[in-house]
Amino acid sequence: MRNNTFLLWVLLLVTGVFGVDADEVKSVSVMVGDSVTLHVTEISRGSNIIWKFGDEIIARMNEADGNPSTYDGPGAIFKDRLKLDKQTGSLTITNIRTEHIGRYSVDIKSTNAILKTFQVTVHDVVESVSLKEGDSVTLHTGVKVQGSDQIVWKFGDQVIPITNLNGIDDAKWRNIHLKDQTPDLGINNIRSDQTGVYKVEINTISMVLHRKYYIAVGGGVKTVSVMERDPVNLDTGVIKIQGYDLIQWKTEGNIVAEINKGANLFGPRDVDDLRFSGRLHLSRETGGLNISDSKTTDSGDYHLHMSNSAYTLQRTIRVIVKTPPQSGAPSGICGAGVRLVVWAVTVFLLQDL
After folding, report:
1. Quick one: signal sequence residues (predicted)?
2. How far is CA 308 from the centre of its chain?
3. pLDDT means per 10 residues in the chain (353 residues)?
């Protein structure tokens, strides 16, 4: 009985005063060249801290002197890239590369022992999208956030002052907003001066995400004008559509053509709009829409919707189908002129008689 009581007290000490607080693995996804900080809450005085990359020690701080030390790691891959914060115990990796992908752990021994683990992935792919002035685009993050989570969007190295995020109103960015209570960035009626690199940094309890997008904004045809019976060609502006999960063409609220990989749909939807029966053609290569044997009733606004996991593009193209001039009008005018001349000559001759 005494042995059991003694064992119980030992267990209480281990799980209490000297217990280990082990968090779940935190996911960290960043871009090549980024700097990322693996955060630890403020440490108490006299803490011993050991950071590891896999099983290799890459940083430490001893309670004896309180001075942080960093190491180059296996193959010197961390040379001049590590910084250990002596106040918080957080580790910063600068100019990160794909060789830094892996598991990082920090062991903090003080009144309570704390063990935290981070799984770091590094990406080198920048999502790119080409737009025309006046288009709208949504940049997707794929992350659900809560009120306490940190979200920062940047244009280059400039923080974008999003009105409904931080309350700052900047005329240059009034067409930018967070989309539908998510960290996704929406840009309406985009301008050419908004061409550039957009970055998002999200920090939640369970993850850190850095993502980068490149937006190119150029001029282009936003109005297509043809004569009746000529074909109407509406382009998506892409060479190949493999990167898109959904492409839709709409007019007057109806979907008239669609490519939907999830639902395995491809082709015109003439059933929804009888005006186009048999005259719509959808390109398998580019997603462009062709209207053959055009009619004046085809005139109107056509809305393009293209989306994938990274972004959603929306564009409006105005179609104007004109009625050609009556072919008989010029000859009729000429005929009337000839008749007028003949009548004048006839009158003149009769007067001479």
Report:
1. 1-22
2. 9
3. 40 38 81 94 79 96 83 96 92 97 92 85 93 95 87 92 62 86 92 95 92 92 93 88 90 91 85 80 92 95 95 96 75 45 40 47
